[in-house]
Amino acid sequence: MIEFMFKLDETSDEALYMQLYRHIRDEIVLGHIAANVKLPSIRRLSAHLGVSRSPVALAYEQLLAEGYVRSKPRSGLFAAKLDTAGFSAEQRLGLKSRAVTASGTDSASAPAALPSPKRAYHASQREEVLYDFGYGSVDVASFPLAKWRRLMNRCLQPANSRLLLYGDLQGEPELRAEIAVYLRQMRGVHCLPEQIVVGAGTYHSLDLLFQLLQEDVTCMAAEEAVNDGVKALFEQFRFDCQPLQLESDGVRVEQLYSCAAQAVYVTPSHQFPYGMTMSAGKRIKLLQWATEQNAYIVENDYDGEFRYSGRPIPSLQSFDEEGRVIYVGTFSRSLTPSFRLSYLVLPLPLLERFRERKHSYDQLASPIFQMTLQMFMQTGDFERHMRKMRSVYHKKRDVLLSALRQAFPEHVDIIGADSGLHVLLRVQSRMSETELVEAASREGVAVYPISAYMLAAQMAEKGQHEASTVLLGFGGLSESDIRSGVGRLAQAWQAIRIT
Predict the structure, then answer these.
(1) Which CATH code is given to the segment(s) 131-141+384-492?
(2) What pLDDT, in 10s, does the model give residues 51-97?
(3) Is CATH 1.10.10.10 what the domain over 16-98 is classified as, yes or no?
């Protein structure tokens, strides 16, 4: 069973069912949907895309009539076997730019631009915290340990003794093949397994990337608030780092033209920590800037799989036709941070630079974990796990919002709740960010300051409202702990002077 990630254009003159038909047909022809793979049911695909069942049913009928899919009674529709052998990897890469897009236009002739020592993300084991709203935790109780253990045991059989040695520098080929399929179906990313480099966590991957970029980049622009580990990497590589102001729909792209940056770091699907999604208009402008300036866009899609309202948001890389976007992904949110598995999708020039060993990178991701994950994905267990976790986190998000609204019926704003595993709580109070955090801590509740993520040191520039904003992650708490933690938070802040 697969899922689809692509763009439906409701403003197009072409019917929705034809857009859907063309997309699935092209994926089958190009081999991105393998023969005998089951397509989602009409009900499930219509719910996933946020459309009625009629367009999906019509598209499936057309595919069936033309022989691109076949029907099995009481089982569903399956991709037909087509004779498309003989294409090299380079030819398949070229085919991407010539394939018919979901809007029914030839993309080759379409416009190029479619649209501190103390951790800042969870409490340490030495801290006495009853309810930790750190964003770095996930729901470990929902992880399928028994399935993972069985697969890992298979990796430890004598026939797989090679996994006890150093692994492939680029990552195990079988895992990279599974990641490529996953990214195309779930995030709309266009890539081949040859373009993927597996890493041991996001910072390991970014460290490699920044080594590869050193020849071209002296000035790196970035969103004015970024993950604290990313800040540390910027300092380590001594890039001239230029903060870009954040607006309600993403970075102010105009500032890029005045800062002479050769690359920009963004989190477009769910900005960290503020939570906004970059608008289509700004994505177009950002890609235009990268093309005009021959610059790179570093897209960190750290939790793009978890969205709770509207249609899934495709990756920025899915809009890129010029090879300017470098995609960074991780399994820390979808699985668990302890496995330390991440990946880069490199444009071809950077891939060539990697293969020429213009870096000091070594493969630190365990080959055993890599093969276990590959089998976990290949058997369909990963897809089932992701469906479960979307539901789990959706419920937790709803519980958190309900508890916050009940505890704070006025004088607070909840920001960035449509996706991801954290929200921001802006308190209309004369208390500072530090005072809010300390008051919560005295009640055994850990919430987190957003000033730790600012590239610019002057929080005053963000205004008084920003100074009274804290971060609450919910992934690692149970629903009952979320309610209890918010209750204690209300007690901690009951003496707040509301302005």
Answers:
(1) 3.90.1150.10
(2) 888 888 888 888 887 778 888 888 889 888 876 554 444 434 343 43
(3) yes
Q: Give the C-alpha separation, 304 to 119, whole Å.
A: 23
Assess contact for 404 and 425: CB atoms under 8 A: yes
At 119 the pLDDT is 55
Distance of alpha carbon 120 from alpha carbon 230, whole angstroms:
12
Q: Which residues pair with 221 in a beta bridge?
A: 242, 264
pLDDT tens for residues 354-404? 998 888 888 888 899 999 999 999 999 999 999 999 999 999 999 999 999
Give the architecture (CATH level 2) of 144-380: 3-Layer(aba) Sandwich (3.40)
Every domain of the chain and the residues it spans: 16-98, 131-141+384-492, 144-380
The pLDDT tens digits for 93-141 are 343 433 333 333 343 333 333 333 345 555 555 566 899 999 888 888 9
pLDDT tens profile 284-319: 999 999 999 999 999 999 887 888 876 677 899 999
Task: For the full predicted model, state whether its pTM sits above 0.85.
Answer: no
